[in-house]
Design goal:
By secondary structure, this protein is mainly β. The chain has one domain (20-108): Jelly Rolls (Sandwich), CATH 2.60.120.10. It has no helices and 8 strands. The chain has strands spanning 20-27, 30-37, 53-60, 63-67, 74-76, 81-84, 90-95, 101-108. The strands form 2 sheets. Strands 1-2-8-3-6 form a 5-stranded antiparallel beta sheet, with no helix packed on it. Strands 5-4-7 form a 3-stranded antiparallel beta sheet, with no helix packed on it. A hairpin with a 6-residue loop joins strand 4 (63-67) and strand 5 (74-76). The protein is globular. Residues 47-106 form the Cupin type-2 domain. This is Cupin type-2 domain-containing protein. Pfam families: Cupin_2. InterPro entries: Cupin_2, RmlC-like_jellyroll, RmlC_Cupin_sf.
Length: 113
């Protein structure tokens, strides 16, 4: 197997008009990606409802997420992480429009211990 490497803060997309999802690693039941946002948000009324669990870490920028049923918005700053259970509906309310918001997202199957 070949080793792979990179830097999550380098080689950012030049076009900031759309969010960019970059697959970093994938295998059965696991997907790791870098997401770069530049002021994007979920469309009005749209909710993510992922069949896999998701763990996200914010590396730069800032963002606000709403989890369905939560009383308040979850504000994320660099270093903030969040675990989102499978089928926990959520949406991105806003991302920083003045600098790239860089996320590390780990999607994984539900496992029992």
């Amino acid at each position: 197997m070949q080793a792979s490497y990179g830097n999550l803060l380098n080689n950012l997309p030049l076009d900031s008009s759309a969010e960019v999802f970059e697959l970093l690693h994938e295998r059965a039941g696991l997907k790791i990606e870098r997401i770069v946002s530049n002021g994007q948000a979920s469309p009005p009324g749209f909710w993510y409802d992922n069949p896999q669990e998701e763990w996200v870490l914010l590396l730069s920028g800032s963002a606000g997420l709403t989890l369905e049923g939560a009383r308040e918005e979850h504000v994320m700053q660099p270093g903030t992480w969040l675990h989102i259970p499978a089928h926990c509906r959520h949406r991105i309310e806003w991302t920083d429009a003045n600098q790239p918001t860089i996320w590390l997202a780990v999607h994984h199957e539900i496992t029992s211990l």
